[in-house]
């Protein structure tokens, strides 16, 4: 087994077989065909779809939460029944856990990247950081569950008040997305284990995870201000 | 490091079993055909529902044999109850808008032809693509299931205005379980379309073959790309709205139900909800949705007209810019659906201006079509006829939009048949004609056989005249004050309208029956049609340069094409005739080749 993780080799073979005409495509915003029409000036480079795809996914998620945010503002604006409550304090601890997970993921990502570029390090050391990230992610979701339990103990349920309704909707929607991220991390670890990981998958997954972080900070501020 | 993951699509090999080839297929072409099949089933269901409604509107007390089988409560003694009329109306609209007008021109043709037209082997995320179809299919099952659950489907209209949609079973038949199933169905549908949009956008940006610059993409690719950007943002808003609606039903929250609401003498256990909130969320999706339905049709019509005119459009770029302008403006005009909601008149004006402005790109598109058609020796075939029909319907239906864009007029016309006529022509029939044009044009590539031209032309003329007979009188009825969404016209002043409604009903039945020609043509040609050549229309874009017809599973037989010209090189002297294929490396002397 080679120490570096290669892209699946047969693709390289394909372009060799068929000459430049069957090349890997010139797609992407960054390399349009030059105005003089000389195709040899085209760089054989395309941004990987997983990168573009992840931006697309994040745009859709942003729209969803933007819609929910505007719903909150409209609903609160016209409401006489809005009851303020204090956010469960465990949320702040959860925030630290989630931020820490981002840090560990970034360390892990760099170690995997360095390993993939066969600079230094070992796969198992890199994987360890990913495991830590995974555990912290689980801890965060568990912490969110505890936050809901705390609210329940105060008699605040989903239907108690619009403020609590929005709290549960936002945190549940975010927790579901974090669970999705955990699925992505598990996939990352498995692929690293099998030496089938691509650099673009690694980058896209960590971008998603960091985005969950940013989204949570935003939500926490929103809920803190509004609730 | 050179990243070749752009070829992720090629990772799945050719399918080996029946299941992986025809059912859970990863091949974008099979998925496209599956979407088309779903749209075909949905459009038949939707059309039958409209027939039932039309018969009821013409002959209110008429017995419709067998109707009690559909709903024992809704049609006791085979006579439709008022509530059942509204249930049918809701289902007709929901099925048509979501499962026909969104799936066929966008998901079906887009899936099949977008990767081929940009020279890709497949979409980058084929598993998501497969999920996209099957999720949509499950959504359809949920919707249809509501016919057979409890007291039937929801009667709240496809817009599901709150609070009626959010109060539960007390609101009437279907307002309990029916709404929940509706909302689940639509939320699932949103997931499917988001997955589809993800693939469309990444394919367009990252999977283009060598030489396929953005401006060398055919009009259809641009239309699908613009549509998927709209879909991504619109469906991502509708989905949480549906979830909030479901929560109001099953969890007792009060997002949309106001305080002190009394329905059927029962005080509702909700407080403080905002009924307008639903309208804002819904129409923020809803207006882009009508462009999601029509913009792919614009792309298809342009793509079909050009090879039949044997010359390109007056301006490739302006047409694309205009479609983009439609997409952007579609987000800021949604309030014109809410002029009668009691919103601040200033807000009405704010929404009225962009609504009038959006007619500018629409008009530019129409003028480019007309200007390009002027003096062209158009080849008349089923595809080009339906493309012309699209242009005609879009103009006729669009003109009434100028009136409706103005709040002062809209307040008079909003709840009348004028609006019914407007949106059926500009969005419903026009988009359907786009689907027909695409079908007649691409069928030879999809199935390797030609469709019958005589039947196709008969289908066009019957549909074209029929559609005008159905939807033009709606405008007159509306101007005369005929309110919409009523199941019967009992008021004195509406009595004179009833003969018109009878005429419309007969026209609808005849036009509907004419679609049997299309269905027959489709099925017959699929199996017994004349074998199609690789490029029957002498067209230039990449779908006509596949090594076989229909294309092999990886589209180009393992050798990606290289593109040298813009997609519409017609009316020039090429080695093959008056056109030069995008893949042809020959040098040409022309003013309009896109770099």
Number of domains of chain A: 2
Number of strands of chain A: 0
What is the percentage of strand-forming residues of chain B?
A: under 5%
What name is given to the CATH topology of chain B? Cytochrome C Oxidase, Chain A
First-last Cα distance of chain B: 28 Å
Provide the helix percentage of chain A.
55-70%
Mean pLDDT of chain B: 93
What's the CATH H-level homologous superfamily of the largest domain in chain A? Answer: Cytochrome c oxidase, subunit III, four-helix bundle
Largest interface: A-B, 62 and 65 residues
Q: Whole-Å distance between the termini of chain A?
A: 56 Å
Total helical elements of chain B: 16
Q: Keywords, please?
A:
heterodimer; A: 227 residues; mainly alpha; Four Helix Bundle (Hemerythrin (Met), subunit A); 69% helix; B: 595 residues; Cytochrome C Oxidase, Chain A; two-stranded antiparallel sheet; 16 helices; 4 strands; disordered N terminus
Structure commentary:
- The complex is a heterodimer of chains A (227) and B (595).
- Chain A is an all-alpha fold.
- Chain A has six helices and no strands.
- Chain A starts with 8 loop residues before the first helix and ends with a helix.
- With 595 residues, chain B is mostly helical.
- Chain B is 60% helix and 2% strand.
- In chain B, the strands form two sheets. A two-stranded antiparallel ribbon of chain B has the order 1-2. A two-stranded antiparallel ribbon of chain B has the order 3-4.
- In chain B, strand 3 (570-574) and strand 4 (577-579) form a beta hairpin.
- In chain B, helix 5 runs antiparallel to helix 6 (177-206).
- Chains A and B meet through helix 1, helix 2 and helix 5 of A and helix 6, helix 7 and helix 8 of B.
């Amino acid at each position: 087994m080679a120490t570096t993780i290669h892209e699946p080799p047969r693709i390289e073979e394909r372009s060799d077989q068929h000459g430049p005409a069957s090349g890997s495509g010139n797609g992407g915003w960054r390399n349009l065909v030059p105005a003089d029409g000389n195709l040899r000036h085209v760089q054989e480079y395309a941004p990987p779809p997983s990168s573009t795809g992840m931006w697309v996914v994040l745009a859709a998620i942003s729209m969803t939460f933007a819609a929910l945010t505007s719903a909150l503002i409209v609903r609160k604006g016209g409401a006489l029944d809005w009851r303020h409550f204090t956010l469960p304090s465990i949320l702040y601890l959860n925030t630290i856990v989630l931020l820490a997970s981002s840090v560990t993921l970034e360390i892990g990502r760099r170690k995997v990247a360095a390993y993939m570029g066969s600079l230094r390090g070992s796969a198992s050391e890199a994987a360890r950081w990913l495991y830590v990230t995974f555990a912290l992610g689980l801890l965060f979701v568990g912490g969110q569950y505890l936050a809901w339990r705390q609210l329940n103990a105060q008699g605040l349920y989903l239907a108690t008040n619009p403020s609590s309704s929005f709290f549960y909707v936002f945190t549940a929607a975010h927790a579901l997305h974090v669970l999705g991220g955990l699925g992505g991390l598990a996939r990352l670890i498995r692929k690293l284990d099998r030496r089938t990981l691509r650099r673009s998958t690694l980058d896209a997954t960590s971008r998603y995870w960091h985005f969950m972080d940013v989204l949570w900070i935003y939500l926490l501020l929103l809920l803190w201000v509004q609730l | 490091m050179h990243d070749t993951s752009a070829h992720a699509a090629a990772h799945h090999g050719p399918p080996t079993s029946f299941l992986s080839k025809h059912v859970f297929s990863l091949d974008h072409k099979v998925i496209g055909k599956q979407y088309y099949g779903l749209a075909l089933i949905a459009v038949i269901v939707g059309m039958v529902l409209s027939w039932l409604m039309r018969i009821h509107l013409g002959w209110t007390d008429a017995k419709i044999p067998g109707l009690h089988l559909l709903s024992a409560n809704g049609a006791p003694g085979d006579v439709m109850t008022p509530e059942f009329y509204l249930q049918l109306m809701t289902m007709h609209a929901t099925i048509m808008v979501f499962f026909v007008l969104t799936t066929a021109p966008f998901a079906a043709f887009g899936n099949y032809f977008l990767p081929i037209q940009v020279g890709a082997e497949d979409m980058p995320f084929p598993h998501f693509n497969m999920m996209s179809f099957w999720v949509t299919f499950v959504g359809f099952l949920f919707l249809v299931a509501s016919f057979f659950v409890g007291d039937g489907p929801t009667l709240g209209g496809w817009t599901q205005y709150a609070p009626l949609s959010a109060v539960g079973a007390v609101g009437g038949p279907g307002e309990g379980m029916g709404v929940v199933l509706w909302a689940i169905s639509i939320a699932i549908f949103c997931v499917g379309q988001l997955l589809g949009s993800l693939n469309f956008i990444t394919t367009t940006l990252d999977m283009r073959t060598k030489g396929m610059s953005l401006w060398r993409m055919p009009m259809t690719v641009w239309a699908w790309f613009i549509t998927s950007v709209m879909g991504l943002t619109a469906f991502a808003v509708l989905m949480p709205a549906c979830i909030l609606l479901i929560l109001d039903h099953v969890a007792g929250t009060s997002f949309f139900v106001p305080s002190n609401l009394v329905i059927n003498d029962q005080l509702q256990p909700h407080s403080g909800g905002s009924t307008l909130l639903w309208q804002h969320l819904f129409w923020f999706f809803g207006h882009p949705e009508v462009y999601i339905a029509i913009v792919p049709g614009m792309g298809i019509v342009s793509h079909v007209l050009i090879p039949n005119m044997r010359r390109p459009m007056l301006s490739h770029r302006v047409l694309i810019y205009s479609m983009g302008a439609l997409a952007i403006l579609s987000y800021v005009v949604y309030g014109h659906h809410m002029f009668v909601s009691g919103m601040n008149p200033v807000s009405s004006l704010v929404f009225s201006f962009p609504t009038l402005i959006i007619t500018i790109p629409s008009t530019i598109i129409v003028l480019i079509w007309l200007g390009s058609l002027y003096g062209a020796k158009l080849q008349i075939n089923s595809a080009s006829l339906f493309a012309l029909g699209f242009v005609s319907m879009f103009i006729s239906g669009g003109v009434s939009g100028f009136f409706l864009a103005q709040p002062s007029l809209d307040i008079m016309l909003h709840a009348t048949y004028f609006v019914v006529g407007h949106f059926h022509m500009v969005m419903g029939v026009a988009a359907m004609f786009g689907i027909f044009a695409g079908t007649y044009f691409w069928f030879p590539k999809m199935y390797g056989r030609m469709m019958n031209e005589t039947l196709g032309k008969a289908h066009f003329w019957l549909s074209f005249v029929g559609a005008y007979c159905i939807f033009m009188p709606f405008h007159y009825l509306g101007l005369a004050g005929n309110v919409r969404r009523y199941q019967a016209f009992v008021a004195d002043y509406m009595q004179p309208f009833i003969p018109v409604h009878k005429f419309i009903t007969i026209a609808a039945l005849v036009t509907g029956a004419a679609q049997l020609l299309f269905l027959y043509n489709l099925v017959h040609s699929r199996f017994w049609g004349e074998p199609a050549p690789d490029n029957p229309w002498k067209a230039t874009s990449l779908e006509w340069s596949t090594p076989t017809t229909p294309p092999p599973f990886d589209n180009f037989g393992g050798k990606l094409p290289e593109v040298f010209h813009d997609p519409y090189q017609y009316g020039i002297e090429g080695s093959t005739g008056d056109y030069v294929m995008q893949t042809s490396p020959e040098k040409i002397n022309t003013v309009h080749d896109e770099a």
